[in-house]
Description:
The complex is a heterodimer.
Chain A: H1 2-8, H2 11-17, H3 22-33, H4 39-43, H5 45-54, E1 62-66, H6 75-78, E2 85-89, E3 99-105, E4 108-111, E5 116-117, H7 119-131, E6 143-147, E7 165-171, E8 174-182, E9 198-202, E10 209-214, E11 217-219, H8 237-251, E12 255-263, E13 267-274, H9 280-285, H10 290-297, H11 300-303, H12 307-317, H13 324-328
Antiparallel strand pairs in A: 1-6, 2-3, 2-6, 3-4, 4-5, 7-8, 7-12, 8-9, 9-10, 10-11, 12-13
Helix pairs in contact in A: 8-12
Chain B: H1 6-30, E1 40-64, E2 71-80, E3 85-91, E4 94-119, H2 142-156, H3 161-174, H4 176-185, H5 188-198, E5 203-210, E6 215-218, E7 221-228, E8 231-236, E9 248-252, E10 259-262, E11 264-279, H6 280-286, H7 305-314, H8 317-331, H9 340-351, H10 353-374, H11 381-405, H12 419-436, H13 438-459, H14 462-470, H15 473-485, H16 493-498, H17 500-505
Antiparallel strand pairs in B: 1-4, 1-10, 1-11, 2-4, 3-4, 5-7, 5-9, 6-11, 7-8
Helix pairs in contact in B: 1-15, 2-3, 8-9, 8-13, 8-15, 9-10, 9-13, 10-11, 10-12, 11-12, 12-13
The complex binds adenosine-5'-diphosphate and magnesium ion (MG).
Amino acid sequence: MRALLDRLFPARAMREIGVLGMNGRNINYISRYNSRQLYPLVDDKLKTKQLALEHGVTTPELIGVISAQHDVRRIAELVKGHDGFCIKPAKGSGGKGILVVARVEDGRFFRTNGTEIPLIDLQRHLSNVLAGLFSLGGAPDVAIIEALIRPDEVFRDYSYAGVPDIRVVVFQGVPVMAMVRLSCAASNGKANLHQGAVGVGLAMDTGRAVCAVQRNRPVFIHPDTGHPLDGLVIPHWHALLELSCACADMTGLGYLGVDLVMDRERGPMLLELNARPGLAIQMANGTGLLPRLRRVEAEPRIVKAGVRERAAFAARHFGTRPAAIAAVA
Amino acid sequence: MKRPNRTAFFLLVAALLGAGAFLTWYRHVTFEVPFLPGERRQVWSVEAQIDFIAMGEAVTASLAVPGSQPGFELIGEHTASPGYGLAFVENNGARRAEWSIRRAEGRQTLYYRADMMVDPETLEDKVGVPPPIRQVVRDGGPQATAAAQLLQNAEARSANPYTLARELIHEFNQETQTARLLEQEKPRGEWLVELLNQAGVAARVVLALELEDGRRRQSPVQVLQVFDGERYALFNIRSGRQGQRANLLLWEYQSGSLLDVVGGRNSEVNFAMILQEVPINRMLEAGVLPAAQHFLDFSIHSLPLSEQTLFKGILLIPVGVLIVCFMRIFVGLRTSGTFMPVLIALAFIQTSLVTGLVGFLLVVAAGLMIRSYLSKLNLLLVARISTVIISVIIIIAAFSVLSFQLGLTEGLKITFFPMIILAWTIERMSILWEEEGPKEVLVQGGGSLFVALIAYVAMSHPVVRHLTFNFLGLQLVMLALLLVLGNYTGYRLSEFRRFRPLVERG
Ligand SMILES: Nc1ncnc2c1ncn2[C@@H]1O[C@H](COP(=O)(O)OP(=O)(O)O)[C@@H](O)[C@H]1O
Ligand SMILES: [Mg+2]
């Protein structure tokens, strides 16, 4: 009887691994460590950009902002001279309303998967963004036009038609867990997990892949390129860790998801910040967040330390040996 | 960062629980309201609200009031009429309430409430005394011939007073030309009475109320009362359908007027009705329903009936909200729009389940089709939503007309759906469809519908309705439950599925 219950409702096993649940995250971490008035800083991508600029953190180049319906017509003119760009709602989340134009050829626009997107569709998309279709609660919004990010060469075999981003969960200034999200055909050039991207957990000491999931199920090779995932190592890992610490410091949020990208030319950049980072990172890492969060809570000293010490603390305590993938592959 | 103060929180929850439990217990003990419905009698409280504008002189208002009748026993009457003198007068079987005042000016509102116990045994019937049969002698004329023809046709197809009445009404509906000719002289009801009298059947037109729990602003309908000796039957003058005794309360049955006001203008009378379950013992003791105001009477039964009927619905909303919170926090179901399921459930309560479900699915499906066309038109969002709202209204109108033509009067209830909400639902679903595919639409739409169904089942359960309506203290208990639920940090049921791979690997 007991065994059956445990099988059906594995609460005990999950507690042992230290899986953080949605309710626990909301009450014990988000509402306790993130003060409400700081949310706008991260919920509005334009404000995040501004903040990053003030703190000398690199972000993708801003081509322009479209904030009124009559400017929608100017889009073609605005992006002239750029051979790729990305439209996103300033207050969007979860990949909603993101439109990546990977190629512009004599005034014609092409998506990441090669299909053409007519100018009129582009304009309609912009109107939808302005009307608040993609933002929380349908509030009116502005559209950000960003230069296309060209992912670092390391990702060539691991990414299909899109930009992989690296998510680091930073708790009280200390990076606790990380994963890289690889876009694939199923996710339409976006690296959002619930749209079908592959999540690969990363060891905090080396930036090496530990294990990977797609749509909540373990995977071992990239579904489009067929490349085994266990060879993936993120370059400049320590720089990325320190960047994520710096990003957390500039917002003042205690429980934060930092999304970084590696640009071919400009190196590590801040893509966006998230005050309610999702729980799927646990799946990608094959382990729970709670032990690491508690470790940080138990060491109030490290919270006050500098960026470098905190990054080093993370590397020392949260490194995982890349066993899971290697064992199978 | 600040930690929430646990002690204060638990004290608050305990205080709410305590207060709620105390109020509930108090009401149970002092007012003898049982916790379960049952072992009780149904009592219809029907309230007439008279509104008029007094013209600054003496006013008398006289309202026909009902008495005991087969199926219903009058067990109590209440009036509210500040400053007015009141008398009940009885005039050869017709009872009237008469209010009078020396001088009144401006808008006046008078209330009269009758409590009618449902009792199939009651046979007391001043109602049952047939009116005298009056033979009208007509000397020729096209109308007399036409009427005689109708009567002859009907008589040929009938065997007793009831079938005669039904066939007569049928004739009126069939022979539209003749009927129109006749109705030029006097209304159909009076013709029916005259023709029945001519055939030696006693009949009259009476005013009756269709009883339906929780209705407000109702008007009485004209009903044909046909006698067969001491017994009678009621017929709808238009459709000829025989009336259900249990749902029809005769209000005025002496062919008098419903309301006379002297010294006022723009008078109107509206009815509100509510079905209550009253324990027999309490009824025997007190004789009537609780009339006396009581200190600490934390019930809404002291309000006018029309407000009570409103509250009967409103007090159920917390139950639905609680269920939605439970489903989201504890189970982890995704719904489209946080409290949309509660609104859908409320609509289901008014439409009845099957009608509501079919109607909802039809409207949303049709709406999605229209919306998929709209998405090609490149409209601005506000304009698009407005277009969807209007489409929803048109769809609803179309379905109503269609179902009425097909004889499915149930279909008319589709108008109870909250249209703006439906339009937003359609808009969200269609975006979801475009962005995440039909599967997510099914998941979220199905989730919403599932939660709505559960909320509906709970909110329409007699015990739940009884408890929420009679024990206001339970609202505090629900509040406390919500607070506790809002603090639940454990896993959601859906997370056991989601994180299963983690457990099985580790
Ligand atoms: N400038 C860009 N160039 C190319 N791809 C981008 C760009 N900006 C975003 N993306 C893609 O879109 C995804 C979502 O973008 P992000 O800014 O994180 O928005 P969201 O808050 O909706 O997740 C990213 O993971 C990335 O794959
Ligand atoms: Mg993102």
